[in-house]
Specification:
This protein is an alpha+beta fold. It is built from eleven helices and 21 strands. The protein has a six-stranded mixed sheet, with helices on both faces. Strands 14, 16, 17, 18 and 19 form a five-stranded antiparallel sheet that branches. It has a four-stranded mixed sheet with strand order 6-7-5-15. A hairpin with a 2-residue loop joins strand 10 (175-181) and strand 11 (184-189). Helix 2 (64-83) packs across helix 11 and helix 9 (309-320) crosses helix 10. The chain is globular, with a radius of gyration of 21 Å. The chain starts with 6 loop residues before the first strand and ends in a 10-residue tail after the last helix.
Amino acid sequence: MKQPDPVVVIGAGLVGLASARAFARANPRFPVIVLEKESAVASHQSGHNSGVLHAGLYYRPGSAKARLAVQGIRAMVEYCADRGIPYERCGKLVVSVDESEVPRLRALLDRGTANGLTGLRWLSPSEAREREPEVDCTAALHVPEEGIVDFPAVARSLARDIAALGGEVRIDTALSAVHPDGKAWRLETNRGDVRAQFVVNCAGLHADRVANWLKAPDVPPIIPFRGDYYKLRHDREHLVRHLIYPVPDPAFPFLGVHFTRLIGGGVECGPSAVLALKREGYGRTDVDARDALSSMSYPGMWRFLGRHPAMVAAELWRTASRKAFTRRLQRLLPALEASDLVPGGSGVRAQAITRDGRLVEDFLFREGPASLHVLNAPSPAATASLAIGDVVARRAIASINGTSVSLKGVS
């Protein structure tokens, strides 16, 4: 009997690997192949983040981010414990630095409670200082479920799981073109063609391009934002005991600079958030003409810049000036000095933006001909990846079988 054509997953980041694993577990009769253009899994967003386990505090109740982050962090902790992957539930403090931020902090407490987080605790300034002696705040929220993890180790473990289930992860295999082949697809790669009965697009920074190749509907462009980090000097790491975050500013579309303990040791400070001129450009001078033109020719990008001119200017200045970056961090830790910071790493966030210049806030999934596309999966996608993988697998199976699946709260 002829073996059925495989289900092919594009991208060996955490979401792609978790989706392939979930599909292989649920449907062992169908072979699964993951195609990854890099020489290792988790080479981009999954390996260029600070390794935070997000518990679902910030996200609108009922949204996909809220539901999948809460499910995902618990699944991720269980998975890491079972596999012996390093993780730590060190907890997080979200701190208000003046009275104007207190109502927003209380709203976060209400939102986290609505999302099902456990152990949330409102802290007075003195209670906050018991946990973080260098923090100067008017109030704080303790989020005990949050923590840190080695996400690249998770990705390598997922790849081993896929192999054990009979699937393949093909590294150094770049997709170059796609062609309809009856009801299936023929995928051109640098290592030969692959015929796929169904394609799952988890291409991250290139998800919009792959989706357009596969004729998916209503594909919002991906705009890359680079985040640069500093690290604390080793002799100043004692300043930070937990994760320390600011109260999000509603006028600022990202979470703001914060302090993150790292699973391998050290403390990271940041990130900034500036437009990247290369989708996989981790250096400040990295430019790719095609990527830059794609972003700057998109009307939604200019409308975004028009909505947030002060934020854009401030982020550019903080990226260029260590002193300016330090001043922003000092709102959380007044004892910090510019000399305490040394250059850290960087990451690039794949963010979908609408034509009217708004960030797509929730995870976004689209179905196309014999395909399913993960078109917006920024943070907390790494934390939520196992839960996202289950969603993707269920949708893919339903599509292959010609049935429908109701997934409340998933776009």
